[in-house]
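User: Hi! I'm working on a homework problem where we have to compare a predicted structure to a textbook description. Could you give me the structure for the chain below?
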Amino acid sequence: MRYIMKALLRLLGWRLVGQLPKDKKYVVIFAPHTSNWDFVLMLMVRFCFKMKIGYLGKHTLFKPPFGWFFRMFGGIPVERSSANNVVDQVAAIIKEREEIQFALAPEGTRSYKPYWKSGFYHIALKAEVPILMTFLNSKTKEIGIGDLLRPSGNQEQDLDVIRAFYKDKAGIRPELTSDIRFEEKR
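Assistant: Happy to help. Predicted structure tokens:
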């Protein structure tokens, strides 16, 4: 599957860049997320790098008869009711596993948002794991693995590092790129 995905990316004109860190556990963020094609392209990157990606899914998806399918592809059941803290649930799962790359798109949507969702950051802090920045850049037709950030707990300082990494990356629909900042709490 790895060679097929690499060939497909090349055929589509994309150049695969970067390499996975040696760490066995980290939170993977993908940006900019501006199109439905982002998911397809990043799924291809997952296969190219043989990543063991975990992702969140509503807990009811993991019941028979199809629960096995979602688990096989890295699904992690989560109870999303207001009584449960998803950040704590995911951090606990990451801590208990020997190896996991937990993935999400911090923009949370393909539409423009004035801020990123902060869950990825809080999960990484609580699980005491780094954040791997993955990307696509439609200007250069590059896609792949970028820098690893070990969150310090100083959000603004860490967001400055993230902004610097993504500043020259353009999504497939650049006009929908969200601002790299967290929502201000009232």
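For your comparison, note the following. The chain has one domain: 2-176. The first helix runs from residue 2 to 11. Good luck with the assignment!
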